């Protein structure tokens, strides 16, 4: 029997995620915000990137607000030319958000480019070793590799527990997670 491909694992995990009850999604988002371990991952004075949820992703906006209240400077991914590498721009309250492609929004070109030290990372699937499957474009792997050149960054994957798979096929360019947060708990890798 052939091992499932990343595409197979992604499709199955996303189908499970899509099937979640709307009330459970809201509760999960609140649990993330309540259980993020600020004692283990201090954020005061640090740039922390989050993301605005697309499709059926877990909503990290309550978590981002908690991190802001704890002193983090927030950032969101941005795609300046829609084809080039993903960068991060500072997110300030009241700033206009513009379409970034992929169904999401981010700060426009007037927002400062920043270099996050902690990245709240979306994913399609994950395994117990801290490997993740994204959406197949490699944006986060490349962004983390570029940021890690300036000093190792902290990658915190966030997902619903139902997105876990037995094993993610790992390739040399794949950047693993340092931590994972779901509605069922926090894991260190």
TrEMBL record:
Its EC number is 6.3.3.2. It is an enzyme of class 6 (ligase). InterPro entries: FTHF_cligase, FTHF_cligase-like_sf, NagB/RpiA_transferase-like. It holds the Pfam family 5-FTHF_cyc-lig. Its cofactor is Mg(2+). It comes from the Bacteria. Substrate binds at residues 52, 57. GO terms for molecular function: 5-formyltetrahydrofolate cyclo-ligase activity; ATP binding; metal ion binding. ATP binds at residues 6-10, 132-140. GO terms for biological process: folic acid-containing compound biosynthetic process; tetrahydrofolate interconversion. It catalyses: (6S)-5-formyl-5,6,7,8-tetrahydrofolate + ATP = (6R)-5,10-methenyltetrahydrofolate + ADP + phosphate. Belongs to the 5-formyltetrahydrofolate cyclo-ligase family. NCBIfam families: MTHFS_bact. This is 5-formyltetrahydrofolate cyclo-ligase.
